């Protein structure tokens, strides 16, 4: 039986370390007022799920790298300006990593070591560029990067061959790399509220794409192939 501790929405400003049983596998501290957590938390080597979202955390210590069994981690809606490199050591992180709505100015390169991760949410931060090499995120199925300041995407985006959803709304993209046409499993591509003027023709190769959202790109000029692509079954929102 999973050992759980659920303390969401309790108005906590501190967490008594006496609550942190070594047998804990599920710890939910969502929606409190925590500015830090006890060091003992990072020694809970059996932890599978950790939810620290919607608190007032300004940092996460390198010791988080010891939580090797963790498969789900939520750090969203805090005040984090950076993440430790040790996040890349969480080899068990397979299901879900959410770091949205913080104050990150850089996409942590260490996250590109999470080769089994399926979902990554890094929205509503202040990230202007991505690492050149994203190929380490080989198992990723859903990538959410909307609400940042991205001006370009690396060619290595095309190596994410398992990706099914790519959400890029509300950035500053003026173009997309041709390699986006290599995302053969892609079903949804959200490009709303950018500065795109056209699309690479390689997108027409995305045979599984069923939704392409292009709304609110003010200077967009529709490429000649897009109507045929839409006729083939993809819903295109203009």
From TrEMBL:
The keyword Repeat applies. InterPro entries: Leu-rich_rpt (IPR001611), Leu-rich_rpt_typical-subtyp (IPR003591), LRR_dom_sf (IPR032675), LRR_domain-containing (IPR050216). SMART domains: LRR_BAC, LRR_TYP. Keywords: Leucine-rich repeat, Repeat. It comes from the Bacteria. GO terms for cellular component: cytoplasm. Signal peptide: none annotated. PANTHER family: PTHR48051, RAS SUPPRESSOR PROTEIN 1. This is Leucine-rich repeat (LRR) protein.
């Amino acid at each position: 039986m999973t050992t759980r501790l659920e303390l969401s929405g309790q108005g906590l400003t501190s967490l008594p370390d006496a609550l942190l049983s070594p047998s804990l596998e599920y710890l939910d501290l969502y929606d409190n007022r925590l500015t830090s957590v006890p060091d003992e938390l990072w020694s809970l080597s059996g932890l599978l799920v950790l939810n620290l979202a919607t608190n007032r955390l300004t940092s996460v210590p390198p010791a988080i790298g010891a939580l090797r069994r963790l498969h789900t981690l939520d750090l969203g809606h805090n005040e984090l300006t950076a993440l430790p490199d040790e996040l890349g050591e969480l080899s068990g992180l397979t299901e879900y990593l959410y770091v949205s709505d913080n104050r990150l100015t850089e996409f942590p390169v260490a996250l590109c070591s999470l080769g089994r991760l399926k979902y990554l949410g890094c929205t509503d931060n202040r990230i202007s560029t991505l690492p050149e090499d994203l190929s380490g995120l080989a198992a990723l199925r859903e990538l959410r990067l909307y609400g940042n300041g991205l001006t370009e995407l690396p060619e290595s985006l095309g190596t994410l061959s398992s990706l099914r959803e790519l959400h890029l709304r509300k950035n500053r993209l003026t173009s997309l790399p041709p390699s986006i046409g290599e995302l053969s499993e892609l079903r949804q591509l959200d490009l709303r509220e950018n500065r795109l003027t056209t699309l690479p023709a390689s997108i027409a190769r995305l045979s599984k794409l069923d939704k392409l959202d292009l709304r609110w790109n003010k200077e967009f000029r529709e490429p000649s192939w897009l109507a045929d692509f839409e006729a083939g079954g993809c819903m295109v929102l203009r």
